[in-house]
Specification:
This protein is of the alpha/beta class. Helices cover about 35% and strands about 20% of the residues. It contains 15 helices and 15 strands. The strands form five sheets. Strands 2-1-15 form a three-stranded mixed sheet, covered by helices on one side. It has a three-stranded mixed sheet with strand order 3-4-5. α7 links the parallel β7 and β8. The longest helix is centred in the first third of the chain and has 17 residues. Bound molecules: N~2~-(3-carboxypropanoyl)-L-arginine.
């Protein structure tokens, strides 16, 4: 059995639009009402997956969810034609593209029963995300149906908000070795809501049968949430023994670093100082919402949004870092601007699962041929553009439904319809 890190990207759905639904997510608020480009968005995501395969990384994908979510609308005693605009937009959101928020994943080496545990996130702080978990759970149960290797859990109950892997980090000597798992929760965030509740994190740690001596519960800094870092993965990212973090990511940074070093002396903590990169620059450029990956030659690369390259202070700091003698040696900018305009960078678009790819339903594993097929379906069926006024247009709803069905057919996943 070879355990490797597989990145499962959420394919950007045909209903991708900018409705300004996520309070505290500055990009979402700033772009509210702008026209979106679903076809271009999905093709950007596919290009990122292709590039990662070319780097030698294992890649998977998840299908977009059925939107609008008619079940949810029925539960609210309404439908797309008569719903108020904010409910209509919430039902129609393509937010499941940000697969980092789909679940929390504890790989087999970390758990008492030697299985990889996955818990679907409830995402209940935001209305448009709170109804994702049913579709997500169905998909996780299919992709990770092999009960010898995986245990898929439902979401933790209300009122404890859980944002999945966006507020979770794992440090380990190598992906296939036992590691420490770090759960990052929020208490307050100035004008903005904290989305991850500590009780949700604790429940997941118990359900995943983690060793209490190898887990940490760390408070996200109030300043970071107030500055627009609504998820920890906007200010910190970990891979193997490396933690790459902004100086102001955690409420109690010194204690956090000391705890990590005590539990894992070989951990390397790279701290980006606020006097070089402010929280505002970090959030505008999303340099931490990078995929920090180990390449086949053993070196690490940061796959980051091209916005990071456009910011001179950020790019200056990153360039100095890779020229130094540290573990991160490569910077790989990628264009995911359509997703970025809703506050989702390269790391938001993927869920990391450490597992043997052979134990996963192969329909969810990507290769160049499958990505070509997916790109053809997207090119043929995805709307070119959507403006918020169109959300009640029956023609658009039909187009979006048929587009997803065409993709499910092409991926042999029509059972998810
Ligand atoms: O939950 N944006 C997402 C972005 C999620 C980013 N994920 C991670 N950081 N892991 C969110 O705020 C915007 C949708 C809208 O406004 O239409 C949105 O939901």
């Amino acid at each position: 059995m070879t355990l490797v890190e597989i990145n499962f990207d959420g394919i950007i759905g045909p209903s991708h639009n900018y409705a300004g639904l996520s309070r505290g997510n500055l990009a979402s608020s700033n772009n509210a009402g702008a026209p979106s480009y679903p076809k271009a968005a999905a093709l950007q995501g596919i290009k990122k997956m292709r590039a990662n395969i070319d780097l030698g990384l294992a890649q998977g994908f998840f299908m977009p969810l059925d939107r609008p979510n008619h079940d949810w609308l029925r539960w609210l005693a309404t439908d797309m034609q008569s719903a108020e605009p904010h409910i209509r937009a919430a039902a129609f959101s393509a937010s499941s593209m940000w697969a980092a928020n789909a679940a929390t994943v504890s790989p087999a080496p970390d758990t008492a029963d030697g299985k990889c545990h996955l818990s679907a996130a409830n995402l209940l702080t935001m209305a448009h995300r709170s109804h994702e978990w049913t579709g997500t759970l169905a998909q996780l149960r299919l992709a990770f149906a092999n009960e010898k290797h995986f245990l898929v859990h439902g979401p933790v109950p209300a009122p404890f908000g859980d944002e999945g892997a966006a507020n979770f980090m794992r440090l380990c000597a190598s992906h296939d070795a036992a590691g420490i798992e770090i759960f990052v929760y929020g208490r307050t965030g100035g004008p903005y809501p904290a989305r991850q509740h500590i009780e949700a994190s604790k429940a997941i740690a118990r359900a995943h049968r983690l060793d209490p001596a190898k887990i940490l519960f760390v408070q996200q800094s109030e300043a970071a949430i107030a500055a627009g870092a609504f998820h920890n993965d906007v200010v910190a990212v970990a891979n193997e023994r490396v933690l790459f973090t902004h100086e102001q990511a955690f409420e109690h940074p010194d204690q956090t670093y000391a705890d990590i070093k005590r539990m894992m002396p070989e951990a390397e903590i790279i701290i980006v100082p606020a006097n070089r990169v402010s929280l505002a620059d970090a959030i505008q450029s999303y340099l931490f919402n990078a995929q920090l990956v180990t390449l086949p030659d053993g070196g690490m690369a940061l796959i980051l949004p091209s916005e990071a390259q456009d910011n001179a202070r950020v790019w200056g700091w990153l360039t100095e870092m890779v020229e130094g003698n540290g573990p991160i040696r490569n910077l790989v900018p990628v264009d995911v601007r359509q997703s970025m305009a809703n506050g989702g960078g390269p790391a938001c678009l993927r869920l990391r699962v450490v597992a043997d790819p052979a134990t996963i339903d192969q329909r969810f594993i990507a290769d160049a041929t499958k990505l070509n097929t997916i790109a053809e379906v997207v090119a043929a069926y995805w709307p070119d553009t959507i403006t918020p006024e169109q959300l009640s247009d029956p023609d658009l709803l039909d187009k979006v439904r048929l587009a997803r069905l065409a993709l499910l057919e092409a991926a042999d996943l029509i059972g998810l319809a």
